[in-house]
Write a structure and sequence with these properties.
Blueprint: H1 2-31, E1 39-42, E2 47-50, H2 58-67, H3 88-95, H4 99-102, H5 106-121, H6 142-150, H7 156-175, H8 195-198
């Protein structure tokens, strides 16, 4: 009989411990806030999901649902001076914080900025919107430079200044390890400039 009582007390103790443990878990769950219930606009014809009233855009989404139209997506606006990683535009940003650039007088900075910005805004080919600002430096070849400067054959002094600006950007890219070497002389099998060979894609980082 004594052994049976001891076993019963042991089992009862185990049950009580499990009960206390479960009660603690339930208490912790009770303290966690419930996720907000989804908001929807429902008619016979359609069901539209909405943000909750405390989220941004609720009023616009609700009004659009009532009127049966879609909420227009926000327009992505490129900030002035923004540049894709590893591109000529990014190289110019790096150039402007370099020691050599900061050592220039204001007149020289303005002159170099004007020339480099003119290059960056030039189209790679006249009938395509891609400009040099968005071209990865690693895609540059010597033939591209030759064809670009060929557009300024009537003003050789301007072509010379543009070349100086391009060299500055290329050397920045070299120091940033975006490229491994300076573009070499054109080989006999080099192809003419094309948007496909210079498309603005880069896996490098600024």
């Amino acid at each position: 009989m004594t052994d049976q009582i001891a076993r019963n007390e042991k089992q009862l103790g185990a049950i009580l411990r499990r009960a206390r443990k479960n009660a603690g878990a339930h208490a912790r769950l009770a303290q966690q806030p419930d996720p907000p219930a989804p908001w929807r606009y429902r008619t016979k014809e359609r069901l539209v999901s909405l943000p909750t009233p405390n989220q941004p855009g609720f009023k616009d989404a609700d009004q659009a649902a009532v009127e049966g139209r879609k909420v227009p997506k926000a327009t992505v606006v490129q900030m002035p001076g923004a540049a894709l990683p590893g591109t000529f535009g990014a190289a110019f940003q790096r150039l402007k914080i370099s020691v050599k650039w900061l050592a220039l007088d204001e007149a020289s900075k303005r002159k170099n900025t004007r020339l480099i910005e003119e290059f960056l805004e030039l189209r790679v080919v006249p009938d395509h919107p891609l400009i040099w600002r968005d071209v990865p430096v690693k895609n540059l070849r010597r033939i591209h430079i030759e064809e670009l400067l060929g557009r300024f054959i009537a003003t050789p002094h301007k072509a010379k200044h543009l070349l100086v600006g391009i060299r500055k950007l290329v050397y920045i890219a070299l120091r940033q390890d975006w490229i491994k070497s300076i573009p070499q002389q054109r080989s006999s099998g080099a192809r003419p400039m094309s948007v496909g060979s210079l498309v603005a894609r880069s896996d490098g980082a600024i």
